[in-house]
């Protein structure tokens, strides 16, 4: 039996999105090393828990206008060595796949657009150029 897809965005399913997405990141050969270097490989650790809570608050801020997020989402990315357009593209791919697993297409499209816009903005501010299409 397939899981019912979320038809709205709310606090609970944003948390489910974040907590479903990051274990997938840790399975990805390109993305995992970035996160393991900063947070370790145990998603049950205190460092990971703090990150997951922070990212949940970020997406609540972005999606619902909640103001519990007080971080600067771009700033930590300045300190990540070897961050590339390919890494951003992979992050988006895994994120979009997770969104597709959890949300109806019309609702999921919101997350896809927002995440793509945020990634493009981050790459621009970090001076990372998009790969040339072949």
Distance, first to last CA = 41 Å
Q: What's the overall average pLDDT, rounded?
A: 93
- Could you say how many structural domains there are in total? 1
What is the helix content?
Answer: 55-70%
What is the N-to-C succession of helices and strands?
HHHHH
**Count of strand segments:** 0
SS-based class: mainly alpha
List low-confidence stretches.
Answer: none
User: Which fold name fills CATH's third level, the topology?
Assistant: Globin-like
Assign the CATH superfamily: Globins
> How does the major sheet shape up?
none
CATH class: Mainly Alpha
Backbone shape: globular
Radius of gyration: 15 Å
Helical segment count: 5
Question: How much β-strand is present in the residues?
Answer: under 5%
CATH architecture: Orthogonal Bundle
């Amino acid at each position: 039996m397939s899981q019912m897809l979320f038809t709205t965005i709310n606090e609970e399913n944003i948390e489910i999105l974040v907590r479903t997405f990051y274990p997938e990141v840790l399975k990805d050969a390109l993305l995992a090393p970035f996160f393991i270097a900063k947070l370790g490989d145990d998603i049950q650790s205190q460092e990971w828990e703090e990150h997951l809570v922070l990212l949940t608050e970020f997406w609540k801020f972005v999606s619902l206008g909640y103001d519990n997020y007080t971080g600067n989402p771009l700033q930590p990315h300045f300190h990540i060595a070897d961050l590339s357009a390919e890494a951003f593209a992979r992050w988006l791919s895994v994120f979009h796949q997770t969104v597709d697993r959890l949300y109806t297409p019309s609702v999921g499209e919101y997350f896809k657009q927002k995440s793509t816009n945020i990634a493009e903005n981050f790459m621009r501010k970090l001076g990372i150029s998009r790969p040339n299409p072949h």
